[in-house]
Amino acid sequence: MIKIFNTYSRSLEVFEPHIPGHVTMYVCGPTVYDVAHLGHARTYVAFDAVIRFLEFMGYRVKYARNVTDVGHLRETGEDRMIVGAERLRKHPMEVADKYMMEFFRDMDALGIRRPDIQPRASMHIPEIIEAVEKLVDKGYGYVIDGSVYFDISKFPDYGKLSNIKPEELLMHRIDPDPRKKHPADFALWKESPPSYPFSWKTPWGRGFPGWHIECSIMSMKYLGEQIDIHGGGQELIFPHHENEIAQSEALTGKKPFVKYWMHTGELTVGGRGMHKSYGNFITIQDALKTYPSDVLRLFILSAHYRTPLDYSEKSMEQAAENFDKITNFYENLSLIAEEDRAKPRDPSLDELGDVFKQSFIEAMSEDFNTPNALAIVYDFMKKVNTRLDDIGHEQAAHLRQLFLETCRALGLLQKIERRSSAAEVMEFVKTLVEVRRELRKRGMYDLADRIRNMLAERGIVVEDTKEGERIRIVR
After folding, report:
1. Which UniProt keywords apply (predicted)?
2. How far is Cα 37 from Cα 40, in angstroms, rounded to an integer?
């Protein structure tokens, strides 16, 4: 039984999708006016682990993640896409294409599962205009010259997601039109000035969509009027997701628009949020020049998705060390599995594997608790490592497959099979060990020791035992 912390109810709830065995999931994607940084990676890796675990548990997940290329305004009222265009001296749509493709490459490099659908806001203008017209006709929207605003007084549940009361909303935010009925009324459609690069013809004049209506329309078009999971960073709870609920439920008359709201905690640097405006951000591309994608993923999953996560070199070094342990464990099992080591199957090891899998599932089923799940992975490795000498090749192959499937439920070890196979490594090492054995028989201990030392420098330890040489990968 999977439980999810629902931001809307502020409590753990048993996960029951609208259609048993099927999950519809929408995660707010990037505004593609600049390169993506590790703050973005934190959100998308976290939700990637959610999706992978749901699929591990047998669910079929239909996943949509949008691309915002129009309408996302700064607090100052500037469209982020136009800010990016002015910086690069290009048309906003050129900027959108450039950074959208870079974002896709970043996600692939991080090993993040590609969404089933990746809709662009600018390609859904007719549907957005139609939805705004309906909201006006139903009395939820009102027109001021060429702009259309949502009247929050017509939606009694406004503020329940963010726990903010409408009477507390005294700021006009980024829609400072004094003619609005309430300061918190938000834009469904904005009138555009002459020669504005984003401008579409509507019944109210030329303009462009509000940011919030874009996600409502795209999610409903591809996933339905009521979806199971909607995710994003905690900074999107208000106003973005609050406004999505209001306009979506007003438009369709169906509640709830989203059954489970999930939000990721902030990635910080020295306790301060990672943001472009602060200048303390690290791009995904730069981070991948220093650390493999699995190390970045392990760092992100070391904290629960709802909690803040602080970036530091020390925490990255710890993640790198932990990932070395994971790969060493996998490769040591592979060495045993691919050598001719016939030993009786140990029922207690099979039981250890069963307990490991069940404990992992229980940890992840409690609101996708990745740090607890990783602790279970490390404990399993520790216990099996003490018994490697007792494992035959068949049982090693079984434990290796169990370990690989479990790690991949977190998105780890996706590229492990691209390395040289354990059989190839073992064949080469065996040849060197045989040469070393012959040198020792001839009393050429200096040369024999050189071979052992050279292997040790490469993370391959050769230990002399009564039964012969034992080989371990420690890296």
Report:
1. Aminoacyl-tRNA synthetase, ATP-binding, Cytoplasm, Ligase, Metal-binding, Nucleotide-binding, Protein biosynthesis, Zinc
2. 6
